[in-house]
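Journal club prep, notes for RB
We'll compare a predicted complex against what the paper describes. Inputs for the adenosine monophosphate case:
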Amino acid sequence: MAAGEEEGAAARTESESEAAVEELRSFKDLGVTDVLCEACDQLGWKVPTKIQVEAIPVALQGRDVIGLAETGSGKTGAFALPILQALLETPQRLFALVLTPTRELAFQISEQFEALGSSIGVQTTVIVGGIDTMSQSLALAKKPHVIIATPGRLVDHLENTKGFNLRALKFLVMDEADRILNMDFETEVDKILKVIPRDRKTFLFSATMTKKVQKLQRAALKNPVKCAVSSKYQTVEKLQQYYIFIPSKFKDSYLVYILNELAGNSFMIFCSTCNNTQRTALLLRNLGFTAIPLHGQMSQNKRLGSLNKFKAKARSILLATDVASRGLDIPHVDVVINFDIPTHSKDYIHRVGRTARAGRSGKSITFVTQYDVELFQRIEHLIGKKLPAFPMQEEEVMMLTERVAEAQRIARMELREQGEKKRSRNDNDDDTEEAIGVRNKVAGGKKKKRKAF
Ligand code: AMP
């Protein structure tokens, strides 16, 4: 990653970083003020993580930062602590803006800001799509200290909410910066950059960076320091990564086989589309697994509901699109399954980064069908290693096909029913639980009817 160097960013070598970690053992050593050190302590953060050691002192000196760190590395603390400290020094409303690509990440970041900043009375507001704009306008009218937003909805408020502007902003953070800087958000980000002061601090954080970062550096960063705790694309050491090479038509049976083999673990299963996520969730539930979907065609409440159920371990399987691949902090994920191979290799890094977090071990299994060989080779090239095949008993898989076929048939029927219901209600919510109720009736109520959300 040469983005930083080309633009004159002062980059530290990895050995310098290691030395820094060795030398500095507490948040206080990094220059963090007492009240915030206490807040870290209360969260159980005894020592700073590598990225925090790297980024916090630099940020406290008032420099712009490009933070390149693995998922789960403590990135949020690395930018939140310097912002909170600056806020303590010069209290001001509408002080910082954090842009993030997904709604769930926005809530997660706001939770960390609140946990770290509650003792100093920090007020945060989350501004994301899928939630009533009126209540958001009211929250903005109260002028919070920190806004955590997805770009689209923020622009909406900048353009339409009377009296709201970010002309006094002191800090801009782009979390998952490579995503924020890609084409999807280009127009929105340009609009935001135009209406915030040039005289501000900017922090970019991501596990993966594209060349677009160079573009942003020209546009917005001033003499940034690059803090990289991993200089190439890495997946954590305690992650065991496998693949299985299988015919596309038996994917469902292989999935069920693996879930049975690894029973007792908690799984995140990634699918490429909302529809396949929903279908697979229904299929698994028809087979008695506690699976729950998370995708962009669900209402925001349902999305948060799914995530919370999974986080609380009330469900052992979360099926998701890439909406959940980045940054989400769910410590107990044991196994990540790439049921549909990611089209962009970098998404692989983000997806498998949902497990083996914070020093725990974890597994990932990527399904490779006859159509996915090239994509899989690209992934192996990106991570710089050849993956082993996950051991399987093919005969046992084949014994499952009949039951799986029946569950597929019911899932298809349920999906159709949901589609029809949605059309008639003109409503965007997902109805998995309700559909299961219908299915239970159809199947003669073999399983207990589950409670609705
Ligand atoms: P993040 O990379 O910001 O998503 O953080 C991942 C997880 O690490 C979160 O649950 C944080 O609460 C936690 N965390 C952040 N900093 C520390 C630290 N210094 N010590 C222990 N846990 C931390």
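Talking point for the session: The chain has two domains: 9-228, 239-416.
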